[in-house]
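[job 4471] stage=fold_predict status=RUNNING
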Amino acid sequence: MNNRSNIIEVINTILKYYAKNTTFNVLLDKAVDEISPTKKFKELLYKEIFNDGYQSFFYSLNSIINDEVQKGKPKDFYKYRVNEKIKFFVFYRIHIINKLFEGKKVFSIALQQKSFLGLQKMLFNVSDEIWYQSGDQSTDFNYYSKRAILMNIYLSSYLYSIYDKSNGLDKTKSFIDKQINNVLKFGRIKAKFKSFFIQK
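[job 4471] inference complete, writing structure tokens
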């Protein structure tokens, strides 16, 4: 078993024992007691992997998700349109969280351990990663508006997935498609109005 598999096991054990107001060190101690890692890996857990408490927890979680998403990209991914890439990234991130971890518990920890601004920042970073991986190079005002829209899509899709009992999260996938298609339609309408008003 490699370090990555062990880290996933540690994260899941932390999720299992998590309760409101529990300090991270208490959870890590419980995980270490249950898993009984090697002395070397135990030292790595405390001194490097989870040396910054819950901040390290979310960083490790996100790193694992990103690794899995990159591995799961289809061979013809480069042929995808930007909106298709975004749909893939949003859905596949949620799929990985539900596959490897307990999505509801992850959200609960984020909600309890992060301030409102902290949650906003975390969502912004996820949205920024998705846009960047989809090939977005914008640096103007659209940079922020695109990420703000995607933050809402990602959060609502994540919450929807928590209660989605369909096979392979098919309902969540449809939910994401509808949201992104609605944004695209709105974008086209805005463009038509803009062209109408600037006609000479």
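[job 4471] summary: The chain has a mean pLDDT of 89.
[job 4471] exit 0
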